[in-house]
Amino acid sequence: MGEEKGLVRAPGRITQDQYKFLEGLVAEGRFASVSEAMRAAIDRFGERRISTDSVYLIGEALIGEGDEVAHIDLLVGDKSGPVGQAFANSLSNLSAGHTPLLAVIRPNLPPKPYTVIVPKVTVKNMEDVGKIFGPAQTAVAKAIADAVEEGMVPKEVLDDWVVVVSVFIHPKAQDQRRIYQYNYSATKLALSRALQKYPTLDKILYEKDRARHPLVSFRAPRLWRPPYLQIALDNPDIEAAKRVIEAVPRNDSIIIEAGTPLIKRYGVGVLQNIREAARDSFVIADLKTMDVGKVEVDMAFEETANAVCAAGAASKETLDEFVYEARRLAIYSCVDLMEVNDPVAKLRSLEQLPDVVILHRAIDVEQKGGQPRWGYIKEIREAFKGKKLLIAVAGGILPSTAKVALDAGADILIVGRYITQSRDVERAVEEFLPCLREDVDLFRVHVE
Predict the structure, then answer these.
(1) Which residues pair with 118 in a beta bridge?
(2) How far apart are alpha carbons 172 and 120 in whole angstroms?
(3) What is the rounded CA–CA span in Å between residue 259 and residue 248?
(4) Secondary structure of residue 194 in the 3-state scheme
């Protein structure tokens, strides 16, 4: 008996001949036991059932508003592939409150491709049942049938493909007309998107930092569109810091820094006070970490900082731990190169570059006539060509010198006293705005 014949029935009950075949493979030394040979047969059977040419498409759509809003997640593909397996599993593995059902236009009339509906929200009573086994069920079925009629789904695959549709019905939904209309439209849109393989990568990359989820009450900003103005709240007075934040005009290119003196006085918990005042802002915790890099990153992360800053004078070991932990937690790592005589050498010594390096002229140095450190920008850029690295400059930045710093290659202008000690904070900030980019439209809800 050949090997192909020996695998025909796997997985499941096997014949006596198949068992003898597996024993023969063990005798040949190809497997240590019949159980091992059986597992190999099952694995090979599964690989053959799921062809690499299988159709496996995914679509999603949100349509409507209020309690009747429809959200559809959809799979479409071959009966012989993973979507077919999911289809069969959904009908044969029932769970309380999430019982799958075939989509039907009316009882005894399903569409093709056959479509199974899986309720997302637990069905708790007969009222909930009526919404699923009524307007939602027929809406999905009609959407599939109409898509076929309109040529969206090729007629030659109707008996080869199946569709799995996950349907959201809010427990408080009441209007059957809206339940039907929203789920019909969402199913059709999700199917269209699946067949078009929407969205494109270009679409995702363009939208990911612009779009805002309608059910999330805050922004989750990233540094992706320099230049930025970073306002350093160094005054160790939280009430004064709040007054500054309240006066800062809303702008997507403004960063809020919890300065080192402020954190030293109140602890990292002060970040929560800043969050209350600057809910949607990108917030940096300037800890000036010198040791135990992992611990301090974790502390800032727990207080919801978007970025954390270490002192460049710290040891290589501390900075490596610092950058690694920040990357692990997916927050930005910043290294302040204040008093680092050779910034390039320091950065080259690290296992991984931080996300941001800061060329910082200390206040005490500035007051004694020390020069800005912008000259290192070109050197750093040349040393790390092709690397994703933001460069910030700090120390006596004024509106009159901001453009000079940006022309030298800076991505972030860090400004403290000029803004925070101004009698008119809003005006002081606005003097820097011409150097920044226009606002991003963050309040669009995309359902196209």
Answers:
(1) 166
(2) 14
(3) 16
(4) helix
Give per-residue pLDDT as tens, 196-236.
999 999 999 988 888 888 888 888 889 999 999 999 999 99
Q: If you search the block for the tokens 């500035």, which residue do you land on?
A: 366
Cα gap 70→64, rounded to integer Å: 6
φ, ψ of residue 181 to 5 degrees: the values are -65, -45
Q: What is the pTM of this model?
A: 0.77
Walk me through the domains of the chain, giving residue ranges and CATH numbers.
Answer: 3-49 (no CATH), 56-197 (3.30.230.60), 228-435 (3.20.20.70)
Q: With a cut of 60, say whether residue 97 has pLDDT above it.
A: yes
Is 71 part of the annotated catalytic residue set? yes
**Which is catalytic among the residues 71, 170, 360, 446?**
71
Backbone angles phi, psi at 136, to 5 degrees: -70, -45
Asked whether the bond before 171 is cis by omega within 30 degrees of 0, the reply is no
Q: Is 186 exposed, middle or buried (0-12, 13-18, 19+ CB in 10 A)?
A: buried
Residues 308, 334 contacting (CB under 8 angstroms): yes
